[in-house]
Every structure is written in structure tokens, then in C-alpha cells.
Design a protein that fits this description.
The chain has 18 helices and no strands. It is mainly α and 468 residues long. It is globular.
Length: 468
């Protein structure tokens, strides 16, 4: 079930929120658990068994780890539990990729049943693994109530597309959280902003990008290639940050406080800064559970660079079973390492240096998004070549108005402006004047009505990060 669907916005969400707010505190967790299972089963009923197995593996493993005082046994159970989690993820997400590559390399013709990936498996697997590791480190006690652990893993606001919630961040909230009118009101507003990002900006610019990326690169010119790359960059940001806003808003309604997942990443002046602002829940997960255990930057420079290489290789592979994502991850890792060697991300100076740094960061992540968006690396290389004029357009299939009309140009400009922290504190300002507060509320109502109308009229409504 999509957050941006009529069923969710006008049926599922009002019913669940209404029942939750009316229910006694003692039964709210059970109500949320039932709602989360129904939410997941709505689109993926056949994969509930995998989620139940994930819950059981982590419940049994974590309780054994917590009770045991034998360090060797604790490590063995941790490794076994983590391997089982990764085995589920590998089979459903990467099995077809491995078989296809083995066929290509060894000229085989092996065929197995095509494995369909359960929605959100990358997100809830990482959440389950964070729980195991937190318990092993004795940062938190093992959860003795299996229903509460099931709620943590299946909680529907962030179940299928994040943000990735680490167990130690919400452990106390599962047992004790407050629901107030102010939190509910702020949660609803945050949900509306996320919905507007998705429906009014991401979908509009996504249509522009899709038209361009659907064509052979020889059939559009360099300007059109840049238009497609920038349109997709904005689409991806508003699609994913919009989903995160909706998830965080729903969490507020239910009394949870999820950490922010985006902090205006497109204002970054380095790729190091970009990853402090983009998909924050994933980058902090890899930092806490992979980079630091590998030694982080507490080791020799060469080992630090190797650690960064491993982290960004894993980051690319986490996003999908495709060489495109692996190259995209390594592309970012390469510039992170270069910045680490040169200290570029720490350089300060006047306005011109700031402009150069910002331009550099934009170029790196926009070119990277081409790899991310292209269906194959072959297409990605040719697309990038077109962007720099190395592939002449033999025959232009369409004129520019085919790719972007006047409304889409307006949305394009709005998207660029809103990627800056101009309206950052709009929801959180303590408005002294009722007029200003009323204007903000009226604006949010208009956004909700426009978004709802777009949901009702549109058949184009994908969520990019659902496939991860």
C-alpha cells in the first residue's frame, strides 16, 4: 500500500489513527502491530512468512546473546543470527543477480525460479540487525516481549522505505511514549508536506526524466541530457525525502520520534557533507555497524581508505542487485577518499571557493544519479558521454516542449528553490501572530487538496525506494 494512494490517505490512515488515539495506552502497541501486519499484507501477503521468520530469528538470537555470559558463545550466536538475516536478504534480493552474472562469465545457461524481492526487505533487515548488535554490545537489554520486537520490525510508517530506525533510538519509546494534540497536529502537517513533495514535485519531474531516459542517447542532444539528469536528481530527492517526511509525521501521530533522514543535501559543498545530509539513517547505520567496527579512522590512512571503500561498496550493493548501484556506490566512495586525502571538505575561504566547492559537489552527485537511474551501465556511460558532447545526436526524436511544458518548468523552479533551506522552520516557528499561523495552515490545506486531486487523477505514482 502506497502512502500516496487514495486507499491509504482516506481509508487506512484515518481509521488506524482514529482507533489509536481513542484506544487505551495498554493496547496501543497491539493495535499498531495489527495495523502494520495488515499494511504489509495488503501488497505482499505471501511474504509475511519471511517477516515472521525474521522476527523469530532475532528474538531467539538476541535473548540467548543477552542471557549468556560466555563471550565465545555470544559471538557465535550473533554471527549465526546475522548470517540468517543476510541469507534472507541475499536470496530474495541478490540471487537472480548472482545467477545472471555466473551465466555471463562462464557462458552457462542455468535457470532457476525467478525470485521476487519482498518490498522493504533491505530496510527491515537492517533494523533487525541493529537490534541484534545493540543487544550484543549490551547497549540495550533483549526485548522479552516478542510482540514489542515484532512492532519494532514491522512498524508500518517506516517499514517499506525507511528511515532505518536503530533499536537503541526507539527502545524506550516502544514501552513509554506520549501522544499529545501538538504532536498529532505537527505529525499531520509533516505528512501533508511529504505528500506534496511526492505528488506535486517528484511525480511531475519524474515524468520529465522518464521521457528522456526512455530514449536511446543518440536521439536527444546535450541540453536534453542535462535536463533529464537534473530532473531525476530532483525527483529522487523529493520522492525519498517526501516519503521520509510522511513516515516521520505518522510516527509523531503515534508518539514516536524518528530521527531526520534528510537535511537539504543539495546545498552540500563536498561529498563528505552530502552523506551527512542524504539518507542519514543509512549512512549512520553503516558508520555505527560497519565503518567503526572495521576501525574507522582510528587506523592507518591506508586502512581508513580501505574501510571507506568497503562502506561505499556495501552502500551501493544495498541499494540494488545491479552493477549500476555498485558503480554508483564506488563513485561516491572514490570522491570521499579523495576528499579525505586532500582535506578538500575542510577547506574554507571566500565566496569563490564556496561557489567552486558547491559546483563540484553538484557535478559529482548529479553524474552519480545518472548511474543510479540508468537501466544498464552501458546506457549510463553513453548518457554521461552525451552530457559532455561526446555523442552527437544523429536524429532528434522530439523537440524540447515534448520533454517539459510550462507547468513542469514552474515545478522545476519551485523544486530548485525548495531544495534550499528557505522554508526550513516553517512548521516549527512559534508564531506570535494568529494571522501568520493561519496563513501557514491555509497553505497546508491547499497543498493537501492539490495533492489529493493529483492522487485521484494520476496513474503515475511510483515510489523509487520501494524497490530497495
Amino acid at each position: 500500500m502506497l502512502f500516496s494512494s487514495m486507499t491509504f490517505v482516506f481509508l487506512f490512515m484515518p481509521i488506524v489513527c482514529g482507533l489509536y488515539l481513542l484506544a487505551r495506552k495498554e493496547i496501543r502497541n497491539y493495535l499498531l502491530l495489527i495495523a502494520s501486519v495488515l499494511f504489509y499484507a495488503w501488497g505482499e501477503p505471501s511474504y509475511l512468512a519471511i517477516m515472521i521468520l525474521t522476527i523469530l530469528v532475532n528474538y531467539i538470537g538476541a535473548n540467548y546473546i543477552y542471557r549468556s555470559h560466555n563471550e565465545k558463545h555470544r559471538k557465535q550466536i550473533l554471527c549465526l543470527s546475522l548470517l540468517l538475516n543476510l541469507a534472507f536478504l541475499f536470496y530474495f534480493k541478490y540471487f537472480n543477480f548472482v545467477i545472471d552474472n555466473l551465466n555471463d562469465v562462464f557462458h552457462l545457461n542455468a535457470h532457476f525460479i525467478d525470485v521476487i524481492m519482498p518490498i522493504g526487505i533491505s530496510f527491515y533487515t537492517f533494523q533487525a540487525m541493529s537490534y541484534l548488535i545493540d543487544v550484543y554490545r549490551r547497549e540495550v537489554p533483549a526485548q522479552r516481549d516478542i510482540y514489542k520486537l515484532a512492532l519494532y520490525i514491522t512498524l508500518f510508517p517506516q517499514l517499506v522505505a525507511g528511515p532505518i530506525v536503530k533499536y537503541h533510538d526507539v527502545e524506550k519509546q516502544i514501552d513509554n511514549r506520549s501522544v499529545t494534540f501538538d504532536k498529532v497536529a505537527l505529525g499531520v502537517k509533516r505528512f501533508i508536506i511529504g505528500l506534496a513533495k511526492k505528488m506535486l514535485i517528484a511525480n511531475t519531474l519524474g515524468a520529465v526524466a522518464d521521457k528522456i531516459f526512455a530514449l536511446p542517447v543518440e536521439q536527444f542532444d546535450t541540453f536534453t541530457a542535462w535536463l533529464g539528469a537534473i530532473a531525476y536528481s530532483l525527483q529522487l530527492y523529493y520522492d525519498f525525502s517526501g516519503y521520509s517526511d510522511m513516515a516521520i509525521g505518522l510516527g509523531m501521530i503515534f508518539g514516536f520520534r524518528f530521527l531526520e533522514n534528510f537535511n537539504y543535501p543539495y546545498i552540500s559543498k563536498s561529498i563528505t557533507e552530502f552523506w551527512r545530509r542524504w539518507h542519514i539513517s543509512l549512512s549512520t547505520w553503516f558508520k555505527e555497524y560497519l565503518y567503526i567496527p572495521l576501525g574507522g579512522n582510528r587506523v592507518s590512512p591506508k586502512r581508513t581508505y580501505f574501510n571507506l571503500f568497503v562502506v561505499f561498496l556495501a552502500t551501493g550493493f544495498w541499494h540494488g542487485a545491479s552493477w549500476n548501484f555498485i558503480f554508483w556506490g564506488l563513485w561516491h566512495g572514490l570522491f570521499i577518499i579523495i576528499e579525505k586525502i586532500t582535506g578538500w571538505h575542510k577547506k574554507t575561504g571566500g565566496v569563490w571557493l564556496s561557489v567552486i566547492q558547491h559546483f563540484y559537489a553538484i557535478m559529482v552527485f548529479v553524474l552519480g544519479w545518472v548511474m543510479f537511474r540508468a537501466d544498464t551501465m552501458s546506457y549510463a556511460w553513453r548518457y554521461l558521454a552525451n552530457m559532455f558532447g561526446f555523442i552527437p545526436a544523429h536524429s532528434l526524436t522530439y523537440e524540447l516542449p515534448y520533454y517539459i511544458d510550462n507547468l513542469e518548468i514552474i515545478v522545476f523552479v519551485i523544486a530548485l528553490l525548495c531544495s534550499l533551506p528557505i522554508f526550513k522552520n516553517m512548521l516549527f516557528l512559534d508564531y506570535k501572530r494568529k494571522v501568520l499561523r493561519s496563513l501557514v495552515n491555509i497553505w497546508l490545506i491547499i497543498l493537501f487538496l492539490l495533492s489529493s486531486a493529483t492522487i485521484a487523477a494520476s496513474t503515475y505514482n511510483p515510489f523509487i525506494y520501494f524497490r530497495f
